[in-house]
Amino acid sequence: MSAQSVFPINHLLKPVVTALFAVAVNTSLVQAAEPANTTTVQELMAGVVTDTTNALWNAALLEPPAGAEKPVPTDAQWQEFRDNALKLQNAPALLMADNLQIAPAGTPATEGSLAPEAIATLRKEKWEAWQAQVSILQEGTAAALRAIDAKDFDAILRAGDTLYAVCDSCHQQFWYPGQQ
Ligand code: HEC
User: Fold this and answer.
1) Which residue in 2, 49, 86, 107 has the fewest CB atoms around it within 10 Å?
2) What pLDDT, in 10s, does the model give residues 26-55?
3) Into how many domains does the chain fold?
């Protein structure tokens, strides 16, 4: 095999190898700078916040036993409320993360709502308002846990109301501002 016949292959491969190397280097740099917080707001809302709060709001659907004034959750039901409140407790820290992604890159805005990039910008511009909403979510969750530990039925309903109100108030400010 002559040197000439090898040359074109080398010539073609070199940029490919260089590019692959550059990708490998970039990836390791990105990983070093931003450790594994890849949860998006969208996933957190759909995968954690919705299910856990629904489970807590189920308290409002319980019926009082015959002759009793208010419902009396069983130990298993209190435990289920507790498991869900504990899961929800992780949401505020994620929502406060610096490098928080709103939705996977390129996710289009649904009608009447902001695109993820616009939400991210608004979140930075109105940081204090965002923080206030996240605090309410955190307080509502803490109140639910206190209610559960005290087996206080009225208090878990009140905590549920706090959690219910903050969904809408945060969404109206940051997801579809200007809509009623
Ligand atoms: C701190 C602000 C904030 C709070 C509090 C909040 N959300 Fe959200 N939520 C958002 C934002 C921002 C989006 C839009 C994300 C996107 O682009 O899909 C969203 C989107 C959603 C979605 C749509 C997810 C999807 O699959 O597209 C659901 C469902 C949701 N939230 C449920 C809730 C519920 C239930 C509560 C209250 C218990 C709540 N959220 C509280 C900020 C918040």
Assistant:
1) 2
2) 444 444 444 455 789 999 999 999 999 999
3) 2
Residues 48 and 24 in one domain: no
Can you say whether the dihedral through the CA atoms of 72, 76, 80, 83 is positive or negative? positive
Give how far Cα 120 sits from Cα of 45, 96, 115, 155, 174, Å: 15, 12, 9, 34, 9
Pair 105, 25 in one domain: no
Position 180 in a domain? no
If one residue of 45, 57, 88 were mutated to test the ligand 1 pocket, choosing by the most ligand atoms within 8 A of its CB, it would be 45
Distance, CA of 23 to CA of 28 (rounded, Å): 9
pTM of the model: 0.83
- Cβ–ligand 1 distance for 56 under 6 Å, the answer no
Give the model confidence (pLDDT) of 102-132 as tens digits: 998 888 888 889 999 999 999 999 999 999 9
